[in-house]
TrEMBL record:
Sequence ranges assigned to domain NAD-dependent epimerase/dehydratase in this UniProt record: 16-220
Name the record gives this protein: NAD-dependent epimerase/dehydratase family protein
Annotated transmembrane regions: none
Top-level taxon of origin: Bacteria
Pfam annotation, one family: Epimerase
Source organism (scientific name): Streptomyces vinaceusdrappus
Amino acid sequence: MSAVTPQSPTSHTVLGSGPAGTALARELVRRGHRVRLVDRKGDGPAVEGVERFAADVSTAEGARAAIGAAAVVYHCVNVGYHLQTEVMPRVQEAVLAAVGETGARLVVLDTLYPYGETGGAVMTEDSPWQATSRKGRMRAELDERYLSAHREGTARVVLGRSADFVGPGVLNSSLGAAVFPAALTGGEVAGLGDIDLPHSYTDIRDVAAGLATLGERPEGDGRVWHLPTAPAVSTREIHTMIEKRVGRPLNVVVVAEPRPFGPFDERFMAEYAEMFYQHTEPQIVDSSAFERTFGAVPTPLADTVDATVAWYEEWLTGR
């Protein structure tokens, strides 16, 4: 573990260096903040203007060391799908204790899982939490603890919920490495579930910008916000957008039920089976509350597809 180094009292610490954490670190630097990016190894690719730091934030010692004197902490940690119900509660406990000790504000990147099956109803921040899956119930329990901590005054917390990620750097998503590499090379493109249903996708850059805004605007604390998300369209419509940009028809294989395909191996799909309802009913996210309150505008899906195709072209060349 890295030794604790002095930080500015106005610095921002990002826990988790996956696509969301990395995009957020870049966005915070762009906004002029001093940024620390934390993961277990601390040895990933250099990010301009960002201090990398190694810590295991599922432990009390690791969380305290990682957070240091940061004014704002962003929890973007994720773990292997089969480990989530075991590890994520430990991360929450350690991080909440650490920010409670230091007084740092905590911004949590959240999922739609607490809502559970909606029957296709539009999801707003007022939608009921009715998850029945293990991972959905776990996320709902964590979120209630975050909000309770804020209500009780033991931590200052805000949650930003995102739909499925898409965008530059996003690999492990239903609109990631199972789609774009094959679209560019003529291989088999995965289409999960009913690809004619409307499905919301959140540009990873909007995830980053939305979390950064919550970090800068404490008046949003104490509640859940839906991060800026473009209006939902069907996955088939997005495939059509991709076809226009790559100049060839996609060879789409509809994965109508959870089974291994491409980057989704057997272990992942066995764990994901309980969440597969997300692809067999409409998944529609309304982020208008965030947009009105903070003056945000989500990236148009056409621009997201352009940027994602361009990123995957470079990624395939550099592999």
